[in-house]
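hiii so um. not sure if this is the right channel but i have a protein structure encoded as tokens and i wanna go backwards to a sequence. like what aa goes where. can anyone help
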């Protein structure tokens, strides 16, 4: 019961309240600073993991129309322009300490049997304002047909005459079509088949042969004669009946745009300027055959027969050809990085799947609409290599071009759909490539290694839409310094120069505020640590001084040194527990209130500054993961620091406990 003597003495002393308040205050301050520091470290880490910095690379040079280097002001020179370059050595760009990773994407066409490549559109009812889905074929077609009825049909050529679609309906009996559609329109609104005066005049002999007359101002079609024709893409398809079945939607004769047009093998008009070499383009200057022929004439002409057979065979694949992009990191695609595209269902391809070459894929919401695909479906794809890069300023319907002789299938397999992405207005801009930040609404993304025979790097086109470099956050200046030191950014005749546009998703805007909070937390932690140390020493010293007389009297009454020290220590531990616990509770509250207030103000300012400049999806994710709260382990550790007080108390006690009991009593009371 000897400890009760010390407890009673501690309760009677008015200084005990002061000691308790000091321990309470200093513990609360220390707990607050420890938690704020822990939060600042966590939040910096969240920002590092949430945001990434992308360097979009465009290759510029003094080039001709084929993208090949020429001397400035020479005959073939067209200017200093961004081009796609095969065989460009990117090792000097990647050999920088600031580079975290890179992605060199390659393009493929994918034949998916039974799934025609369609493009979405809609028509609006003028009276009700109701919108109705309409789908357009993304490829042209070839048909064999006869005219309906027993009399010939004459279609005059008069391009200067004002007319509406369907002004001269041209009724057909479709015998067969290359695309293999189960239903097809039985009429064609006459619109001169897209020929201007010059093109019509260039085909006068073809028109005479078709008509079997000398007339060149009209086309004459006869009953019971089979014709073959190349048709343009056309609208008015929709899902009718069971999923997977496309049927023609009859919208009337006055708003259909079903027309004859140039063949799909006319590469000159449908390939990107810089995706093939000069040699591969020489043959393209030849004139294509007239796109409407009598079947009997085609059969008699071996060259013409081979031409239409080739088109027919290729169209049977082309109509079901989808755009595929092989990537090692879809988040390195500028549109995904900047928020122009984002996952809306399922998941992204994992790093393990990229490394193992798993047969998985991501598709767009538009593809879900026009193919009725869903997460978990497996697409049986036959892939062929393509150098096609969409030219967004020209035609969003373009596809990789299939040619049985030039683009054989290189891979076949079932790819499981694991994620669905949606497209949004692109955030960000670049003065460099106009197409870099865009993607087709029908791209399918697959891991590069899922293709057994990967393309050699020197065979891939280096272009802003195919080559991305991820930098370590905050290392843009270091990266630019490295590029300048290597002379890569210096414009020189006879070589290509890389130019970079950087997108950090807002890390630069967030980092300064978080590092400022981290610095403040460090300062508070230092101050609270020093204050905790000083308070524990002073409270221990004065508490011992206050207990010396009780210890002396206790010793005179026969108490042992050990009993005295343990009793004093027990009183100190009681003060430590009370002060530490209440201080910890207060520290947690202060952490939440002060930290949340500061962070909310910072986030509001950042959100205002970032809106319109950065992709806010990354900011929203970071805001969701940001932490302003008391960590239980950190709080317990901080509260435990109050044990310095009884430890120092033991030190002071050790210096006096071996003295004679009378020496511990105040002078004049011995």
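sure thing!! here u go:
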């Amino acid at each position: 019961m000897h400890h009760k003597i010390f407890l009673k003495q501690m309760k009677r002393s008015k200084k005990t309240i002061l000691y308790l308040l000091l321990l309470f205050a200093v513990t609360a301050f220390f707990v607050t600073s420890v938690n704020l520091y822990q939060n600042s470290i966590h939040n910096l880490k969240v920002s590092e993991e949430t945001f990434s910095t992308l360097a979009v690379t465009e290759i510029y040079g003094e080039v001709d129309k084929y993208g090949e280097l020429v001397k400035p002001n020479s005959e073939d020179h067209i200017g200093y322009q961004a081009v796609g370059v095969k065989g460009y050595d990117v090792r000097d760009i990647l050999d920088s300490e600031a580079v975290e990773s890179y992605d060199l994407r390659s393009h493929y066409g994918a034949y998916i049997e039974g799934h025609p490549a369609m493009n979405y559109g809609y028509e609006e009812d003028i009276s009700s304002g109701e919108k109705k889905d309409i789908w357009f074929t993304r490829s042209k077609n070839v048909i064999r047909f006869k005219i309906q009825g027993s009399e010939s049909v004459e279609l005059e050529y008069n391009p200067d005459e004002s007319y509406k679609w369907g002004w001269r309906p041209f009724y057909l009996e479709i015998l067969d079509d290359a695309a293999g559609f189960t239903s097809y329109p039985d009429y064609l609104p006459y619109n001169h088949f897209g020929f201007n005066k010059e093109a019509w005049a260039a085909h006068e002999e073809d028109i005479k042969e078709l008509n079997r007359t000398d007339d060149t101002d009209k086309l004459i079609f006869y009953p019971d004669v089979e014709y073959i024709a190349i048709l343009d893409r056309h609208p008015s398809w929709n899902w009718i009946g069971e999923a997977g079945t496309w049927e023609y939607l009859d919208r009337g004769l006055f708003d259909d745009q079903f027309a004859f047009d140039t063949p799909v093998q006319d590469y000159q008009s449908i390939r990107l300027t810089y995706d093939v070499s000069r040699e591969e383009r020489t043959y393209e200057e030849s004139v294509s055959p007239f796109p409407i022929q009598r079947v009997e004439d085609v059969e008699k002409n071996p060259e013409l027969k081979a031409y239409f057979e080739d088109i027919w065979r290729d169209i049977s694949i082309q109509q079901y050809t989808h755009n595929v992009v092989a990537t090692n990191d879809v988040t390195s695609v500028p549109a995904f990085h900047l928020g122009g595209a984002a996952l809306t269902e399922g998941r992204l391809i994992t790093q393990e799947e990229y490394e193992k070459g798993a047969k998985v894929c991501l598709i767009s919401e538009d593809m879900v609409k026009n193919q009725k695909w869903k997460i978990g479906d497996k697409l049986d794809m036959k892939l062929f290599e393509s150098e096609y890069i969409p030219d967004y300023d020209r035609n969003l319907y373009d596809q990789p071009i299939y040619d049985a002789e030039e683009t054989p299938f290189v891979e076949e397999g079932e790819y499981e759909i694991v994620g669905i992405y949606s497209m949004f207005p692109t955030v960000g801009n670049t003065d460099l490539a106009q197409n870099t930040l865009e993607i087709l609404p029908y791209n399918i993304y697959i891991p590069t290694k899922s293709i057994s025979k990967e393309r050699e790097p020197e065979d891939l086109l280096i272009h802003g839409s195919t080559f991305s470099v991820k930098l370590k956050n905050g290392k843009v200046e270091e990266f630019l310094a490295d590029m300048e030191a290597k002379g890569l950014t210096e414009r020189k005749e006879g070589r290509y120069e890389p130019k970079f546009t950087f997108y950090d998703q807002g890390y630069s805007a967030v980092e300064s505020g978080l590092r400022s909070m981290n610095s403040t937390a460090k300062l508070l932690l230092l101050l609270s640590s020093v204050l905790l140390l000083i308070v524990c020493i002073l409270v221990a010293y004065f508490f011992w001084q206050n207990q010396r007389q009780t210890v002396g009297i206790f010793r005179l009454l026969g108490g042992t040194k050990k009993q005295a020290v343990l009793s004093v220590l027990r009183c100190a531990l009681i003060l430590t527990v009370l002060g530490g616990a209440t201080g910890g509770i207060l520290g947690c509250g202060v952490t939440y209130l002060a930290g949340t207030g500061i962070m909310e103000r910072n986030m509001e300012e950042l959100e205002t500054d970032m809106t319109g400049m950065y992709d806010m999806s990354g900011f929203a994710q970071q805001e969701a993961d940001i932490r302003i709260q008391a960590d239980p382990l950190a709080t317990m550790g901080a509260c435990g620091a109050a044990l310095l007080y009884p430890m120092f108390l033991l030190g002071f006690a050790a210096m006096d406990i071996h003295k004679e009991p009378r020496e511990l009593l105040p002078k004049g009371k011995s």
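oh and Residues 53-113+321-504 form one domain.
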